[in-house]
Design a protein that fits this description.
Elements lengths: L14 H7 L8 E4 L3 E5 L4 E5 L22 H5 L7 H15 L22 E4 L5 H4 L4 E3 L13 H4 L5 E5 L8 H7 L4 E5 L16 E7 L2 H9 L4 H5 L2 E7 L4
Length: 248
């Protein structure tokens, strides 16, 4: 995401985000806005969100640096529709710090393992390393398409026809996720990535599987975030966890 103009973020007003923030409790012990990831550490868990790239619409200096740690997680989560996208990232990470608790139980499956065969009926929103080997026939939609990718405009035609939809958790950051879900009500939909909230309330909004991270070593992960670590660095200090919609 490096569009210099202010992106359309009206989707952040969707009930999905209100439900995510509902009943969040606890106090933020630490808030880190790293190069690639934003991390909020709560009393019972740690939550991640993608850090917006500089140049993204709404990327302004944070208005209260030094003042976010120590706040209630609920207060931070309520910043979801802030005009400052860095505060939106903090809001998502704060909600995740509540939902992605250290002792949470679920399946250790990676969300990619839920896609059968070569993924010929699969659409993926957002490219990530190794996807061509894991699901070679999937159609990948990217904001800045590379070779073999589809542009964002393809969502209108590809999503209503797909059988499986994988949305990276970064789609939450600009409010795009609710629209994507509305375009593919027929699809088995997986929300995937370190920033995925492991919050069953999201099952009420068209998501069938949540595949995210639960932190094992919060100090080591914090240092990886501070030093600009990417997904591989995070996974050294956390484990995959997936939750499934009952009956899906």
């Amino acid at each position: 995401m490096n569009d210099q103009t202010l992106l359309d973020r009206t989707g952040l007003a969707h009930a999905l985000y209100r439900d995510l923030a509902a009943d969040v409790t606890g106090r933020a012990q630490r808030v880190i806005v790293g190069l690639n990831w934003t991390l909020v550490i709560g009393p019972d868990g740690a939550g991640l969100s993608h850090t917006p790239a500089r140049g993204t619409g709404g990327c302004f200096s944070l208005p209260d640096p030094g003042g976010y740690a120590g706040q209630d997680l609920a207060s931070l989560a309520a910043m979801i529709d802030s005009e400052n996208v860095f505060e939106t990232a903090i809001a998502i990470a704060a909600a995740n710090a509540f939902h992605n608790r250290y002792g949470l139980t679920g399946s250790r499956e990676n969300g990619l393992d839920l896609i059968p065969d070569s993924g010929s009926d699969t659409v993926i929103i957002g490219r990530f390393p190794g996807i061509d080997q894991r699901i070679p026939d999937a159609r990948v939609i990217e904001r800045e398409p590379g070779p073999n990718d589809y542009p964002e405009s393809a969502t209108e035609t590809l999503l209503p026809a797909c059988r499986y939809l994988i949305a990276t958790a970064s789609t939450m950051l600009d409010g795009a996720l609710p629209r994507l879900l509305a375009l593919a009500p027929q699809a088995y939909t997986i929300l995937l990535g370190p920033g995925t909230p492991l919050a069953p309330t999201l099952f009420h909004h068209g998501i069938d599987a949540l595949s995210g991270l639960v932190v094992d070593d919060v100090d080591a992960l914090s240092q990886a975030v501070i030093e600009g670590g990417a997904v591989r660095a995070l996974k050294r200090h956390a484990h995959n966890l997936s939750l499934f919609k009952p009956g899906a």
